[in-house]
């Protein structure tokens, strides 16, 4: 798989104009203009750059990581460094909007270098593109115009700080709009919780706990065809509990059934549930239930 370490080499490869700055490029359509069109297709590639793009008129699918981004009118697409990208000639790139690409080293030494890693939308999957309202589109557009003005000017000692400040503002607005999108997706997130619970139930019923141990959240998310970050963000937003907490609830519920079997020791119950260390199981059980597994068994033991 081909990897591009510099912004210039990446833009050269996809057929876009060379940047004005070695670590930053800004494309912005205005009036009747269109964004420059990249090459028609590409096998899987990776690069060391962030991309923030608002695509207003695009058709087709872009493979991003293990999933596909479904481009629709008014979609804000955020891509992180070293994610696998792939597209074919079914993608129509004639579009309006903006595209900002910058090497991860462009942020070195700034607060944004750490903050940007906390924005979950850079790792989202197919259904998580941000769909902007006209008002939101206008707000982001004005920020991009400020970035473009500074980008086109002769660079001086203040240029980078000003551009990074605008990027920080752009991402904070994007985060606000994603929060709004989460609030408007209650039905979707409830469906996601239902799918999550179903996936855990399938895993428990299949006997894989004893064979493979407790599943990772990444593994569950993969089975659900969503990203781990999106799954975690959505469940936390709508239920107040993390994906790990939801998983633990299932394990504790299963533990209660097994604990009522008097022929099994606490250690055997722990191993059956996929815990490598029985003391950890006992601590988790007490944390969730307020009593130890032994106390639970004594309290509810069958006569």
TrEMBL record:
Keywords: DNA-binding, Transcription, Transcription regulation. InterPro entries: Homeodomain-like_sf, HTH_AraC, Tscrpt_reg_AraC-type_HTH. SMART domains: HTH_ARAC. The keyword Transcription regulation applies. Residues 198-299 form the HTH araC/xylS-type domain. The keyword Transcription applies. GO terms for molecular function: DNA-binding transcription factor activity; sequence-specific DNA binding. This is Helix-turn-helix domain-containing protein. It comes from Maribacter luteus. The lineage of its organism: Bacteria, Pseudomonadati, Bacteroidota, Flavobacteriia, Flavobacteriales.
